[in-house]
Design a protein that fits this description.
The radius of gyration is 15 Å and the shape is globular. The strands form two sheets. Strands 1-2-6-7-8-5 form a six-stranded antiparallel β-sheet. Strands 3-4 form a two-stranded antiparallel ribbon. It contains three helices and eight strands; from the N terminus they run H-H-E-E-E-E-H-E-E-E-E. It is α+β, with helices and mostly antiparallel strands and 140 residues long. 24% of the residues lie in helices and 45% in strands.
Length: 140
Amino acid sequence: MQGLSPSMEAFLAEKPEFLALLGFKNYWFEGLSQTYFCTFEPSIALTHSNGTIVQGGFIAGMLDSAMAQYVLHAHDFKVNPLTLNLDITYLMPCRPSPVEARARVLKMGKSIVFTTAELFQNDKLIATATATNKLTDIIK
């Protein structure tokens, strides 16, 4: 993913509003490890416990988004990866500060994709996810 493809430029120009809510900041792809990275900066508005812990549903959204973005980019934004199953394991609390999601494809079939992702904060693993997605045509 050297530079932005026209499809990625279009995606970023018209990205879904929920990405802004999650604090989406950047993405990149590492070809050697076949890993897609996304950074987020969750705000205090996404927290509970007196503004100290990001609510788990938002963490799930970040992980799900990172995995879906990998699939979108792999298909040049010509498919819609509908999440059929999402399994999250929370290992540590997430604070309202920058996080990095690392997503990988485990198996990419013609219509079903299996993905995994990890979420790091300050170089510590705080959550993991696996997902199953059904590839459908994008509805315009």
